[in-house]
Amino acid sequence: MATTKDLWVFIETNSNGTPKNVGLELLNPGRRLADEQGGKLVAVVIAQDVSIAAKAAGDYGADCVLTVEGPEYENYSTDAYTAVFAYLIKKHEPLTLMIGATGNGRDLAPRISCRVETGLTADCTELSIDEQTGCIAWTRPAFGGNIMATILCTQHTPQMGTVRPGVFKRPQLVPREAEIIKESFAFDPNDIRTRVVEVLAEVTEKVDLEGAEIIVSGGRGLGDAVGFNLIRSFAKSIGATVGSSRAAVEAGWIAHAHQVGQTGKAVSPRIYIACGISGAAQHLAGMSSSETVIAINSDPDAMIFSIADYGVVGDLYKILPILQEEFRSKLTV
Amino acid sequence: MNILVCVKQVPNTQEISIDPETNTLIREGVESIVNLYDGYALEAAARLKDTDKDIKIYVLCMGPPQAETALRECLSLSADVAYLATDRAFAGSDTLATSLILSQSIKWIEGHEGIKFDAIFCGKQAIDGDTAQVGPQIAEALGLPQVTYGYTCECKGDELHILKETEEGKELVAVKFPCLATFTKPSFEPRMVSAKRRFAAKKMEIKHITAEDLEGIDRTKIGLKGSPTRVKKSFVPQARKSGTIFRGEEQEQSARELAKLLVENGLIVSIGEGG
């Protein structure tokens, strides 16, 4: 069992050493939970060069940054990263470990949980402390977003969970010096059992839905792929990022990188505009924490209207151009 | 060459809805299906077999006796041999306990059949739990290397080459046999069941594995009691309240009213390029 009350957050890095958003986002709930449990908030950085991510982790509120540096950690590998975590956990015995639910995070977390024999809860969207046990109450959607389950891990440590990118906002940036603890742990590159043969560069635009302030999403109601031209032009006019429903992605109208929902991205923008999206539970699971939801749909009974703050029942092909025209006339001086 | 595909029988979550009166899941009439992603894993194995007839495909499922239906579906599609790990002692297992049962079952099948598996394929996640944990946990329990989020794969000498999804696009990753791979939705649809295979599958034996068979398994680490995580409560997500919805027949008027409201309430504050 853990001898500390410390809460660890994995700050996943890109191969150039910059931190991915999700790790910094996790420092936000991490701060609150660590304070409530009376432990330190510890960021874990594993990279070829840890300096940038370690600095960022401190600036975003970590009390302490645990670093492991080496050329073998330039790119993520299941074998090396699992070994590092198993070593660190055994040595420092944290109470809690949170990992961003990125592709790599979801590859790594179950592997660690099995190696150190502890419980893991995937894709959490709410985090709190269970009053009865003092453990983390990990809340996550299941059954395609139809129900939420709150899960506890009371007899094993570290209590582990992954959290989807975009669920939490980054904490306030306060430049400061966190305590840096350098750990040396070398992993023989010959023991990394997977080898990247080829990176197939996809010519996809970078879609930052998680960081977007306004999102305009299109769904089945667009009717065809060409409909996204209207969505794109409308989005551009109000400085929004383009999202989509699963139906539109599965129809092949737009790339998966744009998908919002249970099997896409979780987003919490200031404004979410759903165009021709019915509002299936799995879509709502990814966007219902948006501050303001605006829905446009021709079906008056569409589920999306029951959760929308504003909406128009009607043809989005008529309505979007009018909105755009009205915004321009009201906002152009 | 022997490939084992792990499959789970799941309710078709796309058909699930919530009873607004009781706030509970309506399960009646919801069909049980082979988890979609496990179907993609099976298809990946079948495509390897298409090019090498010496490949034998085994399927393993943990679940109640009625999960035999899912295994028969796999036999109708492309699997050669099916095993069901079924025991009351397994019920209520979380992902870690499940991976322990499945990894021990895999070892048991290897002993029973006198074979070694060259590859273990899983779906990237199940559509009911959506955890994506059991595949990597089985790999860890068996000490195998893993590649997750595969689309397709190919045998190249003593390696399996897997085209996988990454956040930036795609990567081709090589891993030596034996290994474990998980699969996501590829760009093609898996094969359909043939009438001939379905007929043959009806008569095929599905071997059961019970807790007693798994001699080495630590009984304190399986089932509901042996699981490190437990569900404290489940609930229907709190519905956001509905706000101002313009439902009138004059769509153009509605759109103008909405625009006015959004600007007045400070929601849309600037208009840029293209506006």
Q: Which structural class do the helices and strands of chain B define?
A: alpha/beta
Overall number of strands of chain B: 15
Largest interface: A-B, 90 and 85 residues
What is the CATH class of chain B?
Alpha Beta
Question: What would you note in describing this structure?
Answer:
The complex is a heterodimer of chains A (333) and B (275). In chain A, helix 3 crosses helix 4 and helix 5 runs parallel beside helix 8. Chain A contains eight helices and 16 strands. Chain A is α/β, with parallel strands linked by helices and 333 residues long. Helices cover 28% and strands 26% of the residues of chain A. Chain A folds into two domains: 185 residues, Rossmann fold (3-Layer(aba) Sandwich), CATH 3.40.50.620; 118 residues, 3-Layer(aba) Sandwich (Rossmann fold). Chain A has a seven-stranded parallel sheet with strand order 5-9-4-1-2-3-10, sandwiched between helices. Chain A is elongated, with a radius of gyration of 22 Å. In chain A, strand 6 and strand 7 form a beta hairpin. The N and C termini of chain A lie far apart (64 Å). Chain B is of the alpha/beta class. Chain B has one domain: 3-Layer(aba) Sandwich (Rossmann fold), CATH 3.40.50.620. Helix content of chain B is 29%, strand content 29%. Chain B is built from seven helices and 15 strands. A nine-stranded mixed sheet of chain B has the order 11-10-9-12-8-1-6-7-13, sandwiched between helices. In chain B, helix 2 crosses helix 5 and helix 3 crosses helix 4. The longest helix of chain B is centred in the middle third of the chain and has 19 residues. Chain B starts with a strand and ends in an 11-residue tail after the last helix. The model of chain B has no long low-confidence stretch (mean pLDDT 93). Classes of the chains: A alpha/beta (333), B alpha/beta (275).
